[in-house]
Structure formats: C-alpha cells, structure tokens
Write a structure and sequence with these properties.
By secondary structure, the chain is mainly alpha-helical. Helices cover 46% and strands 9% of the residues. The longest helix has 15 residues.
Length: 96
Amino acid sequence: MSEAAEKKQTPKKAAAKAPEKQPGIVVYIGPDIPGAKQYTTYNNGLPDALKDRAKAQPFFNSLIVPVERLAQANAELAKEGSALSVFFKRAAESKE
C-alpha cells in the first residue's frame, strides 16, 4: 500500500472510533447496589455510586452494557460460567 493510501485511511479509522466514546443509552445489568438498581437505563452518564463502584472494582464496567446489547447480555448472564455470570456473582458478593 502506498504512503498516500495509508494517510487517507488514518482519518477514517479515527472517525470510526469517535462514536465509541459516547455509548448512548446504557443499562446496568448487575445486582442492586445502593444508588443503582438492576436494569436501570442511563443516557446522561452514570450515577456517582455506580461510577465509584466501577472504579473500585473494575469488573462492574462489564455489567454496564449498551441498550442495543441487552438481549445478548441477558442470555450470557443466564449461561452458567459465562464471563457476565461470573461478574454478576462477584458483584452480588461484594460488600463495598
């Protein structure tokens, strides 16, 4: 690939990544915690309680999914031994 062709592709890649920074409406699929209930949707950022929990225990981030992925995430939650299932159990057992 020529250098000119590579330069043309670089801006497209950067532009494609921009929407990921703003995920839109997300759903918290973890267990109820003080300040955040399971299956609550958020479109203007997360509540401080959930942000703090995710900062202290990063696996909580896996329990916050785009609303478009909710059905897939629920199926994974129901599957014993799946990553989301394990994260949900860890979240339910956490006492922070």
